[in-house]
Amino acid sequence: MNADDFYGYGGIKAVSDFLDTDLNKDNKENYALVGYKLINTITDNGSVKRGICKIEDGKLIGLDESLVEKDDQGLTKTSFKTSIKERVKNDTLVSMNLMAFHHSFINHIEEEFIPFLEKNKNDMETCEYLMPDVVTKEIKEKSNKTFKEFKEFISKGNVIDLAVGVIIGGAFSKIVSSLVNDIIMPLIGIIIGGIDFTNLTFKIKDATVSYGVFIQNILDFLIVAACIFTFVKLINKLNRKKEEPKEEVKEEPKKSDEVLLLEEIRDLLKNEK
Question: What is the reported pTM?
Answer without folding.
Answer: 0.43
